[in-house]
Design brief:
Blueprint (H helix, E strand, L loop, with lengths): L23 H12 L22 H7 L3
């Protein structure tokens, strides 16, 4: 039988996942913070290559990409 890890041994998923109801602006800032990147270097784009509006939600952006 496989050994089950305790909760303290499992990494928290929420710190690694951007919520689908978050705005694009918040998602870009969170990626920059987690990766230690300078402000303004992350741009989430639409499948057409255009920059996504900052007030758009992550869920519809993922749907645009077919995820």
């Amino acid at each position: 039988m496989a050994k089950v890890k305790k909760n303290s041994e499992r990494p928290a998923l929420r710190k690694n996942v951007i919520r689908r109801d978050a705005t694009i602006d918040r998602a870009e800032r969170e990626i920059e913070r987690v990766m230690g990147l300078p402000s303004g270097c992350i741009r989430l784009v639409l499948p057409s290559g255009r920059k996504a509006r900052t007030d758009k939600l992550v869920g519809p952006l993922l749907s645009d990409w077919g995820v």
